[in-house]
Amino acid sequence: MEQRELLSMMPEELRAFLLELGEPGYRADQMFSQMHKGISPGEMTNLPLPLRKKLCEVALWNLPQIRKKLVSAIDGTVKYLFALSDGNCVESVVMRYEHGNTICISSQVGCRMGCKFCASTIGGKVRDLSAGELLGQVIAAGKDTGERISNIVLMGIGEPLDNYGQVVRFLHLVNHPAGLNIGYRHISLSTCGLVDGIEKLQKEDLPITLSISLHAPDDETRSSIMPVNKRWGVDALLNACRAYFRATGRRISFEYTLISGKNDSPKDAEKLAQVLNSHLRDRQSTMPIHVNLIPVNAVAETGFQTSDRAAVRKFAAILEAKGIRATIRRTLGADINASCGQLRRAAGSAGAE
Ligand code: SAH
Fold first, then answer.
1. Are residues 62 and 133 in contact, defined by beta-carbon separation less than 8 angstroms?
2. How many CB atoms lie within 10 A of CB 119?
């Protein structure tokens, strides 16, 4: 009999599962709350011993295990390499801000999007994570740090909209009042621009923040660093963003990784301002536009160089002059190589040791 994964179940599914086992359904809510605190069914002393034993046999308890943990001496950022139940590994990072702890989680083992500057995609995609494995990263990090995690960004390894069903299930699980109860407004989902996924998400009525990895102002440059752009170009992507904003009222933020000599010239900044303003600002839509500039993290395999500080500042100033809010991403965890994909690669291509 295939073991059913407990952490992927909503309370009503857990109730149905308990009934299938011939157990009273009322235990579901209690179990759900305890599991979301990281307590395994085997440790649930409020359950009768025979039920605990039965659950250990027929159900899968797959909270990710900490394989490696690095803590930044500079700012307290914690980076985890988590082992999943099949030995594959993913990374999560806990960042400490004044407004609370934010966790960056992974959505897939590897990635098949092929962005040229990114370490996560080098070995391709191994598999999708289940909703329970997405949730498990938040639970395991909260349990380990002993602190509340109040914000989540889906910006780790993988493309969340390429694992759509499990990601949406995870959003419902992590928001559940009987579980971690993290508000949708405290969750950001970052995508390389899968337009069909953005259109689907728009209909879910989940007030999360959408973040678009844009990285270039025109199709030629974008297609040369992000293969996804050959399927959906800049125009189609920004039209989907406008539709998303109109339907949900939720602000979208744009990520722009600056690569020296590739997309960081003043001309690129002018083009970016023009393309964003023309697509997102018209009489019907006055979307506030926010661009997060990220000096590219040099990954040995990619050969790309980080833009110098002066170029980054100039780029930001041009955007600001055109009415676009531009922030330069602060580097956290610089001493522990906190950007994603690199720890897993160092641990072997499938992440298993
Ligand atoms: N697939 C999703 C989420 C994962 S990547 C997405 O593309 O948005 C998270 C962010 O890190 C993206 O904006 C991605 O483009 C960026 N990124 C990847 N490699 C990077 C690198 N070497 N330097 C800086 N940013 C990088």
1. yes
2. 23
Eight-class DSSP state of 138: H
Distance 176 CA to ligand 1 centre (A): 28
Mutate to test the pocket of ligand 1, among 155, 159, 256, 301 (most ligand atoms within 8 A of CB): 155
Pick the atom of ligand 1 nearest to 157's CA. Answer: 4
Give the residue ranges of the chain where pLDDT is below 50: 349-353
Bridge-based pairing state of the strands 108-110 and 4-5:
unpaired
Chain segment 262-308, per-residue pLDDT in tens: 999 999 999 999 999 999 987 666 788 999 999 988 777 778 898 99
Active site residue 340: yes
256 CB near ligand 1 (under 6 Å): no
For residues 234 and 154, give the distance between their C-alpha atoms in angstroms, rounded to a whole number: 22
Q: At what angle do helices 266-280 and 309-321 cross, to 10 degrees?
A: 30
CA of residue 205 to ligand 1 center, whole Å: 25
- Indicate the DSSP class of residue 219: H
Structure pTM? 0.94
Q: So what's the pLDDT on residue 353?
A: 28
Spacing, Cα 118 to ligand 1 middle (Å): 6
User: Which residue among 213, 293, 305 is best mutated to probe the pocket of ligand 1, counting the most ligand atoms within 8 A of its Cβ?
Assistant: 213
Q: Which CATH number fits domain 65-346: 3.40.30.10, 3.20.20.70, 3.40.50.620, 3.40.50.300?
A: 3.20.20.70
Which CATH code fits 4-60?
1.10.150.530
Residue for token pair 């752009």: 229
- pLDDT of amino acid 288: 86
* pLDDT in the model for residue 349: 41
**In the chain, where does the domain assigned CATH 1.10.150.530 lie?**
4-60
Active site residue 118: no
For the chain, residues classed under CATH 3.20.20.70 are: 65-346
Q: What pLDDT does 133 receive?
A: 98
23 lines ligand 1 (CB under 6 A): no
